[in-house]
What does this fold into?
Amino acid sequence: MVRTMSLLRALLSGARAVRHTPQLVDGLPPDHAVLLDAPDERLGPALVAAALGDHAPAAALLAATREAAEWESRDRYVVRLAAFAHRRDAWLAGWLADAPQDPDALLVRAELAVRKAWESPARAERLRELGPVIEAAAAAAPRDPVPWRLALDHARGTQATHTAFEALWEQAVRRSAHHYGCHVAALEYLSAQCCARRDATLGTRRCAYRECFDFAEQAAADALPDSLIRALPVRAACTQLLAGGGASAPAGRIDAAADLAAELSARYAPGDPWPAEVRNVLAYVLVERGRWAAALEQFRLIGPHATSFPWASPGDDPLGRFLDARDAVRRELAPAVPLRGRAGRGRSGGH
It folds into this structure.
């Protein structure tokens, strides 16, 4: 009788998964429609032109962001243009040859140089050589915080002292007090510093989460309701989880960070590319916490906009990991779907 009931439960579970998966995927784009780091309508034409060797659209795009003080968009576009130049840089070389003092070209050059140095086995040594390149980009656009975000990344890679980092941070926030990219760079510096500490008793590496969460939570509290900085605590949680230090952080603190990020996510339209990375980070944390219903909601809001972070890892396909995570959420929720009637809700409140 026990064996019969166990078999019956297994059969019912399988039936639910087969019959009700279409209900669970309602609102989710099919796998083939999901794109990784898809450019928005402004960046796309600039990348197409760059592929043809024409730097003019990229120059016009970055000049527009600089003149309008669109620092968040400028930061994103610089990162993406530098990533493209890492593979095909003839257009950037032509741009620098035509306008060697162009602040936008200098910024892309600096971003590209730092990216290449980070990938080098001699990272710290290579990065130390790039100080003048970053300084040139900062001097060319005195109001721009993006070169200072790059300087903060540079400081992390060279293991700069707290004093040196704080001096750079002061310059960054003086230009834009609530620049998301600079806050992420500061959080990553703190995380790297925490992970580099050694436990005096055991002699093992540990990740101290407190400073990261303290910084992220204070920044979020000071930010406007629709600011991406409101998601900084969930970024801190994600960083801890990716580093394997999630067990040291209280679950309540991680869940509170996720709830705050979910409130921010709800302020944006479904499928909006602007908060896509924040939503991807939130989905990752929710999956790690086993909050399946809440994770499914974020995957619905993400739509087709998968992002490399946080799904990328050495040797892995980030898009594949994103799709695998979506499938895992659907599988977890399928047994909770009743055989008749509407789809179930999973765990109450997403917990």
About this structure: Strands lie at 35-36, 305-306. The mean pLDDT is 88.
